[in-house]
Design brief:
single chain; 185 residues; Structural Genomics Hypothetical 15.5 Kd Protein In mrcA-pckA Intergenic Region, Chain A; 51% helix; 4% strand; Ribosomal_uS4_CS; rRNA-binding; Ribosomal_uS4_arc; rRNA binding; RNA-binding
Length: 185
C-alpha cells in the first residue's frame, strides 16, 4: 500500500506525448490561465476525470434499477458537492457532470479568480500575489494558487490584512485595472 505520508502523483500524463492538437490546446490553457506548467492542466483533467467516473457509475446504478433511493441519494450528493465547488449551476444534472471541460475547473482556481475580480493585472501577477501571501479568503491568507475556491468563499477573496496592497494608494494597486470582459461578481 505504501507509506501514507508520502505524496503520490495527483495527475496522469498523456498517453500520446507528441500529439500536436493536444499540445497546442494545453499551451493555450497554460498561457490563458497563467499556469506554471502543463502539469497543472493535467491535474485539472484528473480532477474532472474522477467526477466523470462517479457520474458514469451513477448512470450504471440507475440502469440496473436495483435501488432507486440509493441512486437518488448518491446523485444528489454528487451534484450538491459540485455545486458547492462552483463547477455546476443550480439546475444541473448528471449529463452536466459528464459535459464538464478543463476550463471550468481552471476557472475555480484562486489564481484565476483573483485576476477575474480585478485584484491583479494579469494571471501571472495573480499567481505571484497569491504565492507571496497578499491574498486572503475570509481573512485567512492562502498561498496556494491552485486552491479551488468554493462558491461561498468566492465573495470573500480580498487582499490580506498585513499586505501593502490593502492601502488603496499603493503604487502597484493604482496600476491594476479591471480586465476587459471579466464577469466580476
Amino acid at each position: 500500500m505504501g507509506y501514507p505520508g508520502k505524496n503520490h502523483k495527483s495527475y496522469q500524463t498523456p498517453k500520446r506525448p507528441f500529439e500536436k492538437t493536444r499540445i497546442e490546446e494545453e499551451t493555450r490553457l497554460v498561457i490563458e490561465y497563467g499556469l506554471r506548467n502543463k502539469r497543472e492542466v493535467w491535474k485539472a483533467q484528473s480532477h474532472l476525470r474522477k467526477y466523470r467516473k462517479a457520474a458514469r457509475e451513477l448512470l450504471a446504478l440507475m440502469s440496473s434499477a436495483t435501488n432507486q433511493t440509493v441512486f437518488e441519494a448518491k446523485k444528489s450528493e454528487l451534484i450538491s458537492h459540485m455545486q458547492r465547488a462552483g463547477l455546476l449551476g443550480p439546475d444541473a444534472d448528471i449529463d452536466n457532470v459528464l459535459a464538464l471541460k478543463v476550463p471550468a475547473q481552471l476557472e475555480r482556481r484562486l489564481q484565476t479568480l483573483v485576476y477575474r475580480k480585478g485584484l491583479a493585472r494579469s494571471p501571472k501577477q495573480a499567481r505571484q500575489l497569491v504565492t507571496h501571501g497578499h491574498i486572503a479568503i475570509g481573512g485567512r491568507r492562502v498561498t496556494v494558487p491552485g486552491y479551488l475556491v468554493t462558491r461561498g468563499e468566492e465573495t470573500t477573496i480580498s487582499y490580506a490584512g498585513k499586505s501593502p496592497f490593502v492601502d488603496a494608494s499603493h503604487a502597484e494597486r493604482t496600476r491594476i485595472t479591471r480586465p476587459t470582459g471579466a464577469g466580476v461578481n
